[in-house]
């Protein structure tokens, strides 16, 4: 997005103005603070995901955007207007619920038209809009499509999706993700989806806000969130990761040497933000860790940089496109590695009880404070 703004200067001002501004919003339920002084900006036309564990406050925040809950403190501005006190049916926001909330006594077309009738739209306009949406979402008797079409019927500025794919099987969920992305792109509408499924959020969203205990822990693109988490908690929550605790022993120009109990001395690339403490965590994603029988052949340039850990394979999981390994290091720690299956036959595979060398480069590591 930054590159697009740099090359399209005349449009930069319009793009940078957020459609939605959430300012220091607080929501309490008795003694429980569900949302804690949360602030967030979302751009027009953005597909944004709220990701977090159950009970983190993401659905409460979504309900405040829809108007089903009222903030105790703070403001919610949509296109510059404070909508915190606006009734749900009077705000240009629609919400698609997890259970789809359809009316069983109404036909497909009447379900879609329900909100339009409540808004007293003229009958010819309702019929035209319903016909447009039936074609747009390719209704095939699936109730999720009816619920989606009904949510889009009044052309909301903001569409809220509360775990809409949770009840679907894996294949249908994956195809529906792609359909939603294409639909959002074609409409140019702002979508906000709530999910606890990390893969779903990373597949669909332009940016992701990770929530915990009512707070936003990090807002970033899927790649930045995965490759450069701000904390150990985020690194462990988003995807699989190997974590080693240690002490910073040496700080050179572009390298840190960290002494760990479970993995010995690890050389890592110096982080952009220097660690505030001597005790840190080294995080390495499983796909960054390579396995071999003898390890890489060192040369003069990388002899000191390549991190090598020896151990024994304890578990092997074949997942089609990749194979997942667990390696028990000589220290007793368990390391996870994921390697792509580039050959049809298992000529490069490793088996349980086989001794291997796990290795990774300094740039594969992320340094996090405890």
Describe the structure.
- The protein is of the alpha+beta class and 370 residues long.
- It folds into 2 domains: 152 residues, 3-Layer(aba) Sandwich (Rossmann fold); 130 residues, RNA polymerase II/Efflux pump adaptor protein, barrel-sandwich hybrid domain (OB fold (Dihydrolipoamide Acetyltransferase, E2P), Beta Barrel), CATH 2.40.50.100.
- It is 26% helix and 36% strand.
- It is built from 10 helices and 20 strands.
- It has a 6-stranded mixed sheet, sandwiched between helices. Strands 13-12-11-14-20 form a 5-stranded antiparallel sheet. The protein has a 5-stranded antiparallel sheet with strand order 15-19-16-17-18, with no helix packed on it.
- Strand 12 and strand 13 form a beta hairpin.
- The longest helix is centred in the middle third of the chain and has 18 residues.
- The two termini are 32 Å apart.
Level-1 CATH class name of the largest domain: Alpha Beta
Percent of residues in helices comes to 25-40%
In N-to-C order, the SSE pattern is HHEEEHEEEHHHEHEHEEHHEEEEEEEEEE
CA gyration radius, whole angstroms: 25 Å
Mean pLDDT score, rounded? 85
Distance linking N and C termini: 32 Å
Give the CATH topology of the largest domain.
Rossmann fold
> Can you tell me the residue ranges where pLDDT is under 50 for at least 5 consecutive residues?
1-15
Number of domains: 2
Output the CATH homologous superfamily of the largest domain: P-loop containing nucleotide triphosphate hydrolases
- The spatial strand order of the largest sheet comes to 6-7-8-3-9-10
Shape: elongated
Main pleated-sheet profile? 6 strands, mixed
- The number of helical runs is 10
How large a portion of the residues is in β-strands, by DSSP E?
Answer: 35-45%
Q: Which structural class matches the secondary elements?
A: alpha+beta
Question: Architecture of the largest domain, according to CATH?
Answer: 3-Layer(aba) Sandwich
Number of strands: 20
């Amino acid at each position: 997005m930054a590159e697009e703004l740099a090359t399209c200067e005349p449009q930069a001002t319009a793009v940078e103005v957020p459609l939605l501004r959430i300012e220091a919003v607080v929501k309490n339920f008795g003694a429980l603070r569900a949302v804690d002084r949360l602030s967030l900006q979302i751009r027009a036309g953005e597909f944004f995901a709220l990701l977090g564990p159950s009970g983190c406050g993401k659905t409460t925040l979504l309900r405040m955007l829809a108007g089903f809950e009222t903030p105790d403190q703070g403001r919610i501005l949509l296109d510059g207007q404070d909508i915190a006190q606006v009734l749900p049916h009077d705000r240009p926001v629609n919400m698609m619920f997890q259970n789809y909330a359809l009316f069983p006594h109404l036909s497909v077309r009447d379900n879609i038209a329900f909100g339009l009738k409540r808004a007293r739209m003229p009958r010819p306009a309702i019929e035209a809009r319903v016909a447009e949406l039936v074609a747009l979402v390719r209704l095939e008797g699936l109730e999720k499509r009816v619920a989606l079409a009904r949510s889009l019927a009044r052309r909301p500025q903001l569409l809220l999706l509360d775990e809409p794919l949770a009840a679907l099987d894996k294949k249908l969920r994956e195809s529906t993700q792609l359909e939603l992305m294409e639909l959002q792109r074609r409409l140019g509408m702002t979508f906000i989806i709530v999910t606890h499924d990390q893969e779903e959020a990373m597949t669909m969203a332009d940016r992701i806000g990770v929530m915990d205990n009512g707070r936003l822990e990090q807002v970033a693109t899927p790649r930045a969130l995965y490759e450069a988490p701000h904390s150990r908690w985020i690194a462990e929550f988003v995807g699989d990761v190997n974590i080693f605790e240690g002490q910073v022993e040496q700080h050179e120009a572009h390298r840190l040497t960290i002494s760990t109990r479970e993995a010995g001395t690890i050389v890592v690339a110096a982080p952009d933000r220097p660690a505030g403490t001597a005790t840190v965590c080294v995080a390495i994603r499983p796909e960054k860790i390579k396995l071999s029988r003898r390890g890489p052949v060192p040369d003069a340039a990388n002899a000191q940089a390549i991190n090598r850990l020896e151990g024994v394979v304890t578990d092997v999981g074949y997942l089609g496109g990749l194979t997942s390994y667990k390696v028990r290091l000589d220290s007793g720690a368990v390391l996870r590695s994921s390697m792509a299956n580039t050959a049809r036959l298992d000529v490069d595979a490793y088996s349980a009880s086989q001794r291997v060398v796990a290795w990774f480069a300094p740039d594969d590591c992320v340094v996090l404070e405890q």
